[in-house]
Specification:
Elements lengths: L2 E14 L2 E14 L3 E5 L6 H8 L7 E6 L2 E2 L5 H11 E4 L11 H11 L4 H14 L15 H13 L5 E5 L7 H18 L2 E5 L11 E6 L2 E4 L2
Parallel strand pairs: 3-8, 3-9, 6-7, 7-8
Antiparallel strand pairs: 1-2, 1-4, 4-5, 9-10
InterPro entries: AAA+_ATPase, ABC_transporter-like_ATP-bd, ABC_transporter-like_CS, ABC_transpr_LolD-like, MacB-like_ATP-bd, P-loop_NTPase
Protein name: Putative hemin import ATP-binding protein HrtA
Function: Part of the ABC transporter complex hrt involved in hemin import. Responsible for energy coupling to the transport system.
């Protein structure tokens, strides 16, 4: 089984009042297709920096990030933007839906930015909305959706361009227990169905049972604990 995401000895440092601080220290990670990995850690442990580097938003000081075996290091700003559009999906604590777009339009916008064939895009929208159980809400605006429904739309939007890797940043933080479990269960299922890799940063112990692995970010490295 191939690794769709690899982080190889990632280090990230920065200057703080004349002092060099190390946020990530030769951190390594491999995530196989169909795998959902949870990352936990206290505030200030570097989770946001980790996600930003893995998601092609921030360059590491040293080390390599590979998507489908290809390094994304040394790319221009425009090239990194293209990588994020075509290879990476993001889900955030807030669904971040565009308020004036209907559900199906949220997904079609992603397809348009990626210059996807319209007929292919419409078929993909129908398939994804069917999978997440929201076909009947395709004409609804975000304000008419529940919190759980908005997050499900965010999942479908993140999967629209069939990304290699899906990143979820505290996706259950604003949901109750039942809706949180539903959302993470859906992420796990869609990742396996699509053959993608997924990394979820979370503080929510309730959803860890749905993850293939749970890692802890400590002292700049990811550790697996029993």
């Amino acid at each position: 089984m191939r690794n769709r995401l690899e982080l190889q000895e990632i280090t990230r440092t920065f200057e703080d009042g004349g002092t060099q601080r190390t946020i990530l220290n030769q951190l390594s990670l491999e995530v196989a297709e169909g795998e959902l990995v949870a990352v936990m850690g206290p505030s200030g442990s570097g989770k946001s920096t980790f996600l930003s580097i893995a998601g092609a938003l921030l360059e590491p000081t040293s080390g390599h990030v590979l998507l489908d075996g290809e390094s994304i290091g040394g790319k221009s700003k425009q090239e990194r933007s293209e990588i994020r559009l075509r290879k990476i999906g993001f889900i955030f604590q807030s669904a971040n839906l565009i308020p004036y777009l209907k559900v199906e339009e949220q997904l079609m916008l992603v397809a348009m930015l990626a210059e996807m064939d319209k007929a292919k895009a419409l078929k993909r929208v129908r398939e994804l909305l069917d999978k997440i159980g929201l076909s009947h809400r395709r004409k609804a605006y975000p304000e008419k959706l529940s919190g759980g429904e908005r997050q499900r739309v965010a999942i479908a939007r993140a999967l629209m361009n069939d990304p290699a890797v899906l990143f979820a940043d505290e996706p259950t933080a604003s949901l109750d227990a039942a809706r949180g479990l539903d959302v993470v269960s859906m992420i796990a299922k869609q990742v396996k169905d699509q053959g993608a890799s997924a990394v979820m940063v979370t503080h929510d112990d309730r959803v860890l049972q749905l993850c293939d692995r749970v890692l802890y970010l400590e002292n700049g490295k990811l550790n697996r604990q029993a």
